[in-house]
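If it is no trouble, might I ask you for a protein's amino acid sequence along with its backbone structure tokens?
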Amino acid sequence: MNKVAIKNILAPVDFSDPGVRALTYAAQMANLFDATVLMAYVIEPVPMPAELSMASVYEPDLEDRALERLALISETHFADCHRETPIILHGHPGTELVKCASTQAIDLIVLGTHGYSGIKHLLLGSTAEYVVRSSPCPVLTIRHDE
């Protein structure tokens, strides 16, 4: 049996409790495998009616604020890890995270999940579910217990 080699870990962050909790697992996995961590935040476009605009609209300073928070979280959670500069992606979170995993040669995604079911799942969707189904690499999901 071949040994599992994990060199690059993608740690998506949405600044929620489940997302931040998953970073503890990402840090432990990075230390265990001596892997490099890449944190990513996805900015979703603001929905606009078609008659008002055809372009995606983003809050202008959101990216700067997100990068500041990512830098702080990176220092807090990944101080003892190899880490890349956090990145900002734009678009649908699941789609962008899967693309990122492919283009960045990611070996493992560590992702927090809210654990919604029923109507909440239908209304809010599930980024974690999409990533698990579409990812080119293994995904470790960390369920948040309230």
About this structure: The chain has one domain: 8-143.
